[in-house]
């Protein structure tokens, strides 16, 4: 089917590639022309303005946005509302706050434009492995976009979670859990690093070992093995851990609904603390974020300064 991909960053570019490989006709737009040109060489139809969506695509049109949460999503939706017509569909595949998604769905519905919020997990590995997609939409709207979601996802790797907003809500909690899991791995390897056996322990081999039948095996641990393979003690990675919003929103939601979530809350606070002190634990967290999401890390030069 025809789909316009708006935003060709780490995720959007690979999602466009995966859809091309699955036989979909992909129209591609990015704020900077070079990325549009790049995917056009791989078979996508380039768009150099949002207005071209209505000029070149047949109705009903499906537009998938992969943009940073917040104002940039609102500004694009505002422009698309002037371009699209009743029956067209906008999918927000970024990590938007679920309450914002609910409001956007209501606003678009008044114009007859459909809205789907799609929480996407899989990071830079999704092109090869497929993504996990958590969608929120009216069932009849979801049906129209399901062929695209099915081909983006792994087998059994997508779900209509509920009405608009529910997809981003489930993705928010997913990322909160991710914070807690990463923190546990980081603390465990920090204990190993501080132990009297530090000089003999091979962290790469331990991570690999724990993924062979252990109850703590996981994809995150596989990625940590890859990080240790590249750099056994992560010495050039600064212990500075960003948070991208979902962890904060999960903690706020827990407070709002009176749910105790001490592990997720403390893992969020640790990310704040990482910006004030130097620890192996936080180098592990930074390395993990780089491995699964391609997130930039700060590097430490031999002078000890980070960049």
Walk me through what this model shows:
This protein has 307 residues and is of the alpha/beta class. Helices cover 50% and strands 15% of the residues. It contains 13 helices and 8 strands. Strand 1, helix 1 and strand 2 form a beta-alpha-beta unit.
Short description:
This protein has about 300 residues and is an alpha/beta fold. It has helices spanning about 10-20, 35-40, 50-55, 70-85, 100-110, 125-130, 140-150, 165-195, 205-210, 220-230, 245-255, 260-275, 280-295; strands at about 1-5, 25-30, 45, 60-65, 90, 115-120, 130-135, 155-160.
In helices, the fraction of residues equals 40-55%
Question: What are the secondary-structure elements, in order, as H or E?
Answer: EHEHEHEHEHEHEHEHHHHHH
In the sheet with the most strands, the strands line up as: 3-2-1-4-5-6-7-8
Uncertain segments are: 302-307
Q: In terms of structural class, how would the helical and strand content be classed?
A: alpha/beta
Strand share of the residues? 5-15%
Averaged pLDDT:
94
Largest sheet: 8 strands, mixed
* Alpha plus pi helix count: 13
Write down how many β-strands occur, each being a DSSP E stretch of 2 or more residues.
8
Distance, first to last CA: 44 Å
Tell me the Rg in angstroms: 21 Å
Shape: globular
List the helices and strands and how they pair.
Blueprint (H helix, E strand, L loop, with lengths): L1 E5 L3 H12 L3 E5 L3 H8 L4 E3 L4 H5 L5 E4 L5 H13 L5 E4 L5 H12 L4 E8 L4 H4 L1 E6 L2 H14 E10 L3 H28 L9 H8 L8 H12 L15 H12 L4 H12 L6 H14 L14
Parallel strand pairs: 1-2, 1-4, 2-3, 4-5, 5-6, 7-8
Antiparallel strand pairs: 6-7
């Amino acid at each position: 089917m025809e789909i316009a991909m708006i935003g060709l960053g780490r995720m959007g570019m690979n999602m466009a590639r995966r859809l091309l490989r699955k036989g979909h006709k992909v129209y591609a737009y990015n704020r900077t022309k070079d990325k549009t040109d790049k995917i056009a060489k791989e078979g996508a139809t380039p768009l150099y303005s949002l207005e071209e969506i209505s000029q070149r695509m047949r109705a009903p049109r499906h537009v998938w946005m992969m943009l940073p949460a917040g104002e940039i999503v609102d500004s694009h939706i505002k422009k698309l509302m002037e371009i699209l017509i009743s029956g067209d569909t906008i999918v927000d595949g970024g990590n938007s706050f679920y309450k914002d998604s609910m409001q956007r769905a209501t606003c678009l519905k008044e114009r007859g434009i459909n809205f789907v919020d799609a929480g996407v997990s899989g990071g830079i590995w999704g092109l090869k492995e497929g993504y996990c997609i958590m969608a929120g939409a009216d069932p009849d709207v979801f049906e129209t976009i399901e062929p695209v979601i099915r081909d983006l996802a792994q087998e059994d790797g997508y779900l209509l979670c509920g009405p608009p907003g529910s997809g981003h809500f489930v993705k928010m909690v997913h990322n909160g859990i991710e914070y807690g899991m990463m923190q546990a791995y980081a603390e465990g390897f920090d204990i190993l690093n501080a132990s009297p056996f530090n000089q003999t322990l091979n962290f790469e081999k331990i991570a690999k070992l724990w993924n062979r039948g252990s109850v703590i095996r996981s994809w995150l641990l596989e990625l940590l093995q890859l990080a240790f393979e590249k750099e056994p003690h992560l010495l050039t990675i600064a212990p500075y851990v960003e948070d991208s919003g979902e962890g904060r929103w999960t903690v706020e939601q827990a407070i709002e609904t009176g749910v105790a979530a001490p592990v997720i809350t403390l893992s969020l606070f640790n990310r704040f603390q990482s910006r004030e002190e130097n620890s192996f634990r936080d180098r592990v967290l930074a390395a993990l974020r780089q491995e699964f999401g391609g997130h930039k890390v700060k590097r430490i030069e031999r002078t000890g300064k980070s960049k």
